[in-house]
Amino acid sequence: MNQVKNSNKLKIYPIFLPNLGCKTRCVYCNQSIMTGENVPKFHVLEQLLKDKNDIDEIAFYGGTFTGLPKDVMKRLLSIRPDIPKRISTRPDSIDEEIVQILKSFNVKTVELGVESLDDEVLNHSKRNYTKKDVLNSLRLVREYFEVVAHLMVGLPYDTREKDLYTVKGLLEENVKFFRIHPTIVFKETELEKLYKNGEYEPLSLEDAVTIISEMTMMIESFGGTVTRLGYHVPDSQKHYIIAGPYHSSFGDLIRSYIIKLLVKKYNIHQVQYNKRYSSWIFAHGNSEMKVERKEIEVDDILLDGVSYKVLMQKFVNDFLLPNVL
Ligand code: SF4
């Protein structure tokens, strides 16, 4: 049923609990439709994990883990107590008692569905919390756990400026790890109705790529890491996508766009790259760039001899920060 996922070199065993623990339903969400997963039986999980020794973490995804009844939460966390756990949850479902439970059951990472720091966006997306709640939850968890903030762009009432402001606000709160998703309209969600009534317009793929590239550059310029870009939608679920900027290689689209942007803005003539970055240099229209290309051993991309990371910082300082200060 579940496949071990390699994320940041960690072997993570994901367990999906679609919409379990969620008190309300966010406008864009229907986890069963999006993931194709069903709630697993406890004894099946126990059996599957009993003798697994090739995994670094067990992750509980797809719902509000800390919104589950406490006895259910503890029972799930007690599976293979020797293996560290990762849980995903929402900012308004965390308090000091929950932090103590997570600490005592070997939870190492909290994936926090922040989505936005803009109260209007949060309200219209039916997230039912505010920026203040996000900041409070971060203060509770960041001392004890690695925090991965999940962000979405293109939610109702969202703008590019609000997205950049959200990133800046979280970096100021010392958040280091991010996942960024474009909003997709799935069947059997409230967003589907809003879209069909003409009350919601999804981002184009082009706009989603531009905005998320800017967010990525801002995060990585300030020492943060973007661990995932875009949704993984299993092939079996793709026919449930109604509209929105879905692309199966969204992460590569972002990385290719960033290189293209830097080459253009800084009038770059030569690109030297380690072959592990080949897709960023050649794919998604980048083979058209009029530059000299050369493979190198060093693990980097050099644009006229300068690391692309340095040029990303320059781009952020020159063009992005003046818009969000
Ligand atoms: S909290 Fe997460 S899983 Fe629950 S409805 Fe909202 S987006 Fe879906």
Total domain units: 2
Q: Examine the secondary-structure arrangement and name the CATH architecture of the largest domain.
A: Alpha-Beta Barrel
Gap between N and C termini:
47 Å
- Chemical compounds bound to the protein: iron/sulfur cluster
List the helices and strands and how they pair.
Layout: E1 5-7, E2 10-16, H1 31-35, H2 42-49, E3 57-61, H3 70-77, E4 85-89, H4 96-104, E5 107-115, H5 119-124, H6 131-141, E6 146-153, H7 160-172, E7 177-182, E8 185-186, H8 190-196, H9 205-221, E9 225-229, E10 241-243, H10 250-265, E11 270-273, H11 278-282, E12 292-295, E13 301-303, E14 306-307, H12 308-324
Bound molecules: iron/sulfur cluster.
Residues 19, 22, 25-26, 29, 31, 63-64, 90, 113 line the site of iron/sulfur cluster.
Structure description:
The chain is an alpha/beta fold and 325 residues long. It folds into two domains: 5-248, Aldolase class I (TIM Barrel), CATH 3.20.20; 258-319, no CATH class. It has twelve helices and 14 strands. It has an eight-stranded mixed β-sheet. Helix 9 (205-221) crosses helix 12 (308-324) and helix 10 (250-265) packs across helix 12. It binds iron/sulfur cluster (SF4). Iron/sulfur cluster binds next to loops.
